[in-house]
Amino acid sequence: GRGRKVHTVWLGGDSREDGVNLTRRPFDGWASADFPSIKTINLPIEVPSSWPPDAAAQVIHDGVTSLINGVRGLARFHVHLRERNWAPLPMGSRLRNALEQLFRSSMTIGRFTIDRADQQWGIALTGSRRS
């Protein structure tokens, strides 16, 4: 609860490769005052191929912003983006292009610097709070 501190939170299934489907709204509810302070969040996300790419990218951008603004004590986060069932996110796909437009290779949101790493399997976002 409120007075506790947690070092790292992994979301997903039984293993670190299991992702949270974007349709399950993984970014909602992080601003609860009853949550402990969380230093690091690791969030693998499956993006449904049926979603319009621009809409999916915007939901992810808004979600990252809500993590940054809502989680007490957050110093670092990792978001890994792939298609449904962990299929690779193809280079040049409309979804990858939309994500690359919203998340430049190095950018700032609030007090966080966010770096984007383009991987063969998808996109990795890493955010670090600036001092």
TrEMBL record:
Q: What is this protein called?
A: Uncharacterized protein
Question: Which species is listed as the source?
Answer: Vitrella brassicaformis
